[in-house]
Amino acid sequence: EWPLRPGEDFLDWALQVLTAHAHDKSVLEIEFRGEEGTGIGPTLEFYSLVAAELQRKELGIWVCDDEETPAESDGVDLGQGLKPRGYYVKSGSYGLFPAPYPQDSPKLTKICSLFHLLGMFVGKSLQDQRLVDLPLSLPFFKMLCRGIV
Question: Is 1 a residue whose pLDDT tops 50?
């Protein structure tokens, strides 16, 4: 079943959906439980929600620039409604770059699974020709493309 909206296990559900459709060449189509409609609207909302969830500060996967601007003092909205200041990583003008972790960190397994989800998410969005609001930094993007950008 599809969850109604993002919650604690939304990224786990998104991982299950993307894993199930990873080898499928057809365009992904999402339907949320309890809501009418399928097709492009809910599917674009799914992509938008996953992109926003991957930018949550509490995940700890991105280097964080915490400089606050007056326009964001009340909160920020990345597609899920207004969230309190500090809910999302502020990538600044450089974009999102992975946070460094020591090889023996207890968080490493979870961090690796989130980057695995990120890879499947970006891959499926490229395959389906969907634009996602995920401001990856140029150095990170170059690493992903093995220097060919």
Answer: no
